[in-house]
């Protein structure tokens, strides 16, 4: 997803169903995109399967059909594939290698790893039965 596409998706996730003019108006004044730019970008998002529309009068109402969490997961998988050779380990090592990780973030990562280990253990036990 491009930066412009992500900006529009964030608005759709926050506001729900919107006309193009609603999206333009919801943008901060600084960095606001022109109506035609929003329309072009929303159509691209629709082509990509992130957005759908329904007609109301002469205008279209657009809504996100992909949840924010699903889009995040898709983008993370894309980054892992493109930059880290499909290795989550290499991604994590790159994240931790910068030295900018707080103790709170490390604790949250440890909890997430423990939960992932427990889930993987449950999958293994189910497969062996």
Distance between the termini: 41 Å
The arrangement of helices and strands along the chain is HHHEEHHH
Give the tally of β-strands. 2
Helix content: 55-70%
- Largest beta-sheet characterization: 2 strands, antiparallel
Assign an overall shape: elongated
- List unreliable stretches of 5+ residues: none
Describe the protein's architecture and organization.
Helix 2 (20-26) packs across helix 3 (35-47). The protein is elongated, with a radius of gyration of 20 Å. The model has no long low-confidence stretch (mean pLDDT 92). The protein is mostly helical and 129 residues long. The protein is built from six helices and two strands; from the N terminus they run αααββααα. The chain has a two-stranded antiparallel sheet.
Annotate the secondary structure layout:
Blueprint: H1 3-15, H2 20-26, H3 35-47, E1 51-56, E2 59-64, H4 68-84, H5 88-97, H6 103-128
Antiparallel strand pairs: 1-2
